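Structural prep section.
Before we set up the soaks we want a predicted structure of the protein with zinc ion in place, mainly to decide which crystallisation condition to try first. Input record follows.
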Amino acid sequence: MDEITIDCPYCGEAIDVLIDSYDEPQQYYQDCSVCCAPILFIVSENEAGDIQIEARRDDE
Ligand SMILES: [Zn+2]
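Run finished without errors. Recording the tokens verbatim:
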């Protein structure tokens, strides 16, 4: 498991999230620990093999 810090797309607070697998592209929801809004996380790998994690609002 790996811990990363992202900015909540709803309230803008920096929150820590745990990524449990880099095996394949995935997306999942995790509630913000500050405002409890459901953040959509999209995990993907770029051409250089680096993992990118995007945090999005669910209502866009
Ligand atoms: Zn939040």
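Observations: The chain has one domain: 2-56.
Flagged for discussion at group meeting.
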